[in-house]
Amino acid sequence: MRRPPTRTTGTAMKGALQRVEDIAAFGLGRLKLEQIPPNRLSVLARYGLGTKAPKLERTAEPKGTAILTAVMRHLEAKAIDDALDLFEILMATRLISTAKRSTDKQRLSTLPQLEKASRIVARAAKVFIEKLESIEAAGGEVDVAALWRALEEVAPRSVMSGAAAIVVTLVPQDGDSAQTALRGALALRYNTVKPFLSLLGETPALEAATGGVRILAGVKKLPALSRGKVGEKPLLPREIDDKLVPPHWHQAVYANAEQPQGTVDRDAYACTWFNLKIGVQQESDIMFNKNKLWSTASTCSGSRYDLRGLAVHEFGHAFGLNHVAESTDQVMGDKSGYCDTYMRKLQRGDTLEMINRYK
Known about the structure:
Order of helices and strands: HHHHHHHHHHHEEHH
Largest sheet: 2 strands, parallel
Shape: flat
Radius of gyration: 30 Å
Helix content: 55-70%
């Protein structure tokens, strides 16, 4: 129970989740011990982890039970942290980075062809624009034959048409070809995450704030989904939660050319959860413009902004809070003028929003 995962594989992730489940089975992590100072529990846990088993066995009650309880609570928290840390590393190194390398390699293989075609198209476009501008300035008529002669000095007509076709093929109009290719490659990495899907939706390591309830409900259905024999019985749209499929994943999930029409690509649907990890905020920087006049005094006057209040406001954004109406006088009000010091103190609405987000 003390051993953290040492490898970044789907099997190791399965072991990490199993470790959380084994420790949580004792139920000690859910005991209400708010009245005991955290540092006291930490001291007991360190003592228990550093003491030989025979000595612990001889410890008098209730100290012995207190030590074991503190140790198990510590191990459960540590196991959850280890599992989530491994999850992040696994997604970054074995899934997302691998998929990105494969799509980058594919795009690099077409780069010389794209560059050559783009140069031809660019030169032809320059000649075309210059000729049109000169005709417009002179007020004359467009001489199509003369225009073609000028363009064919760049390259033969067939070469220009071929170059334009290559550019259209390699640079799709949706403007999202790189991400589309990445999502397709991610779906092909499904076997990397398959070993631990059966535990992911059932582990105590996953909890959710109010905003994540729907996502957690979807994750809890992944184990059954991973066991389905989609080759024999294709997955249908009504069997998944459509609201959990981001718009940019629709093509990969619902329009896989290798799947029967009108069915869902199970592998792509499962991998949407892991691709969303890319967009999770890992850190936040807050910068204050030194060209502005700031006040840090207990009372503010003049054309100055209250640094203390605005700092609290910006930290609210770092924690994920959005603006509210200025009239509510909350820290997250959407406007701030000179010497507005009301943002220094959290109001009931600010507190409730933080509780709802992180309870």
